[in-house]
Amino acid sequence: MKKFNTYQKNGFTLAAACGLIGITYGVFADTAGLSLLQASALSIFTFTGASQFAAVSVIDGGGNPAAAVGSALLLSARNALYGPVITKSLNNGKLNKAVAAHFVIDETIAIASAQESSKDSRDSFWFTGISLFVFWNIGTILGVLLGGILEDPGSWGLDAAFPAAFVALIIPHVLTREGKITAIVAGAITLVCIPLTPVGMPILLASVAIVPGLLAHRKKKRAS
Q1: Average pLDDT for 85-97
Q2: Gap between the Cα atoms of 57 and 178, Å rounded
Q3: How far is CA 112 from the centre of its chain?
């Protein structure tokens, strides 16, 4: 029961933090000219913050819808790599997995993959995913409604919420040896690629760092 309470607390805290990011997204969507319905539709049907911010940024910069969708798809492509991480923990059934696919994002996988048993992984995945979905959409609505007041999210510190949430996500993982290896390799790849590749590509290329991390994890399992 103690472990259940722990992931509940972590999931709820993360969801609340993402709610603040949702407010930031709502403000940006409003300043880019999106209506409440349009901004909410993106949050409901896309439900991945980085892609939503990318799409809104393109629109705000005068880009066409195709460019906005392309940027969003580029950033969300990493989510396809998360499927194998969670699929073994989910209950069987195509409908169940189809619904779960909508909640396969950085935050839910980070919380779920930190659990020791399949049951805790599954329960934490659903709890975090549903909590995030609720907070994110509430944040989106609040951000759009308050867009006229919060024209500069940076003055409220909301711009720091997005990177802060990702830092919180990686802490449980970099405490392990394989996590440190993955983080160091991913950081090196990102630093090299930022000045050489288009926006969004460094994130995708850094995913290669999971290979040395997995090799270290397998070596650890063989030694134990």
Answers
A1: 77
A2: 35
A3: 13
